């Protein structure tokens, strides 16, 4: 296929690439050593929707906002009508609903895996409330991460906790409506440092298999040991029809939650490549792309717009791979030619292509430049500065 034709095809395919942004990406977050407060950070759900709308207006690729229940709907399902008003006012959909089962004092020894049946009950009730919130807001996904685990050998029964885990997830699964999904996110460590109850893709996949057909695996790119081959895990989850979605970010060491492609852009490119190798469009269309980052140093809006543009670029590079020729070279075991066929797409500068894609849709050719010229950040810093300055930043 001539390069021009392939570029034209990619321009069309880019329309279907949307990525969900996290409400918490706009808030003042930090590390365990503290927070560096930003005057323009969002402190209310309305401000998070306003910032999300700004990102969508600049990029055309972020129509939904992921919500974390206790951070965004502290009143539970009762807050749904307020959220619906914000959805219609700002034109950004409520996206995945993320339960908070990691901050309550009772969850010291776990939430849905806690040895105390009463505490497990409380956790399951929060899960069921999260499902009701998703129904009330028309959200497809309840995206679950639990911090559950233990810090010392012998302190907790790994086996008992697996039984409680399946029981709780099955209860949540069975409360879902048709078309809704339970995404099960795994993480090898932090905050638990001896074992985490849902530590890797195998545990998440077997739980999804055990609880029912509406359960799938969520892959957070930061939740892997350095030596793990994430795109191979993705290939397996596609093969097993268990890939529900992603939390994209980047890392140098552990769950660093840095901006996508800032450390290893080739990693995300290889993941997109594996997804685009899947021939069943129903499977690829069902994969939810989401961002899960905490912007402690970069400006929140700048980081989010940069992230979306980078995700579009890495997806466009993966779309450029000449899959037919690659399959021939792989079949012929032409190692270097096959590798060069893949690298050719990765090293193609797609920024002019993205500019064309944006201009054809009346979007700013350079969304980051447009953000700077919009004065939006200065405006929210004026509006929110005094309030944010009064916040405390210390950890202890
Ligand atoms: C846990 C995690 C999870 C969210 C949280 C904000 O590390 O990735 O997805 O709940 O970050
Ligand atoms: Mn995550």
Fill in the keyword field for this structure.
single chain; 396 residues; alpha/beta; five-stranded parallel β-sheet; three-stranded parallel β-sheet; 16 helices; 10 strands; 48% helix; globular; binds 6-deoxy-beta-L-fructofuranose; binds manganese (II) ion
On the 0 to 100 scale, the average pLDDT is 96
Question: Structural class, from helix and strand content?
Answer: alpha/beta
Radius of gyration over C-alpha positions, nearest whole angstrom: 21 Å
Lateral strand order in the biggest sheet: 4-6-8-9-10
Report the sheet-strand fraction: 5-15%
Q: Specify the biggest β-sheet.
A: 5 strands, parallel
Bound molecules: 6-deoxy-beta-L-fructofuranose, manganese (II) ion
Q: Find the count of extended strands (DSSP E, 2+ residues).
A: 10
Summarize the structure.
The chain has 16 helices and 10 strands.
Overview of the structural elements:
- The chain has 16 helices and ten strands.
- Strands 4-6-8-9-10 form a five-stranded parallel sheet. Strands 1-2-3 form a three-stranded parallel sheet. The protein has a two-stranded antiparallel sheet with strand order 5-7.
- The protein starts with a helix and ends in a 7-residue tail after the last helix.
- The longest helix has 21 residues, at 117-137.
- The chain is an alpha/beta fold.
- Manganese (II) ion (MN) is lined by residues 145, 185, 220, 247, 292.
């Amino acid at each position: 296929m001539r390069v021009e034709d392939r570029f034209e095809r990619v321009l069309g395919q880019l329309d279907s690439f949307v990525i969900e942004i996290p409400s918490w990406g706009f808030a003042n977050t930090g590390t365990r050593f503290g927070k560096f407060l930003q005057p323009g950070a969002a402190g209310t759900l309305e401000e998070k929707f306003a910032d999300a709308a700004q990102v969508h207006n600049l990029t055309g690729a972020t129509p939904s906002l992921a919500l974390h229940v206790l951070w965004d709907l502290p009143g539970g399902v009762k807050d749904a009508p307020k959220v619906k008003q914000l959805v219609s006012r700002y034109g950004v959909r409520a996206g995945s609903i993320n339960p908070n089962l990691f901050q309550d004092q009772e969850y010291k020894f776990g939430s849905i895996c806690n040895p105390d049946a009463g505490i497990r009950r409380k956790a399951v009730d929060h899960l069921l409330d999260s499902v009701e919130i998703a129904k009330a807001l028309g959200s497809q996904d309840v995206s679950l991460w639990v911090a559950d685990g233990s810090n010392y050998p012998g302190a907790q029964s790994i086996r008992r906790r697996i039984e409680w885990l399946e029981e709780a997830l099955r209860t949540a699964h069975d409360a879902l409506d048709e078309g809704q999904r339970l995404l099960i996110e795994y993480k090898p460590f932090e905050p638990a440092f001896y074992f985490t109850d849902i530590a890797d893709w195998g545990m998440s996949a077997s739980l999804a298999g055990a609880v029912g057909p509406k359960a799938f695996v969520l892959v957070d790119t930061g939740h892997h040991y350095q030596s793990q081959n994430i795109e191979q895990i993705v290939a397996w989850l596609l093969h097993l029809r268990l890939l529900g979605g992603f939390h994209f970010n980047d890392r140098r060491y552990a769950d660093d939650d840095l901006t996508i492609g800032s450390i290893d852009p080739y990693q995300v490119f290889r993941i997109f490549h594996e997804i685009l190798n899947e021939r069943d469009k129903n499977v690829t269309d069902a994969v939810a792309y989401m961002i899960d980052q905490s912007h402690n140093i970069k400006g929140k809006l700048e980081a989010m717009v940069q992230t979306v543009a980078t995700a579009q670029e890495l997806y466009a590079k993966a779309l450029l791979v000449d899959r037919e020729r690659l399959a021939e070279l792989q079949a012929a075991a032409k190692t270097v030619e096959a590798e060069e066929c893949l690298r050719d797409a990765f090293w193609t500068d797609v920024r002019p292509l993205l500019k064309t894609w944006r201009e054809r849709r009346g979007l700013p050719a350079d969304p980051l430049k447009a953000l700077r010229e919009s004065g939006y950040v200065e405006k929210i810093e004026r509006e929110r500065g005094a309030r944010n300055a009064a916040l405390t930043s210390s950890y202890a």
